[in-house]
Amino acid sequence: MGAFYCSTCWHVSPSFQYRCPSCGATNSFYTEQQYAELMIRYIHHPLRRYRIIALQNLKQMKWKDAIPDIQERIRIEKDMDVKAEAKKAIDAIGIYHNRTENEQSVLKDEATHMYEHLYHVTSKVIPVRRIIRKRGHYHLRPRGLR
């Protein structure tokens, strides 16, 4: 099951709790989906501090559905710190999801071609005929029999 998040102090808990152990707020825990939607709304908050914290939390959660809203925030934002944090968030989310999609596609490819490596030649073929023409058969015999 997913994590639960306190909307008051941003505390993360593995289980649902009625009272937050960090700040003591009651009934402030949300599921991951609800918390991500709350953070997406906080991206457009009038206070700079809330926008930065929301972007950092979305970056940490790797929430893919937030990318269009973050891009909109980059477009309309005038504060350079918030804009930089939004770019970091998009980069982190994009890298994470591209990496996981690539790993899944590689795993699918490996599953279909599991024995393909058995048919690849891994050693170099020595052209024996050319060597025999140049040197003869004597160098191929053991040393005691020459």
UniProtKB/TrEMBL annotation:
Quote the protein name from its UniProt record.
LapB rubredoxin metal binding domain-containing protein
What species does this protein belong to? Methanospirillum purgamenti
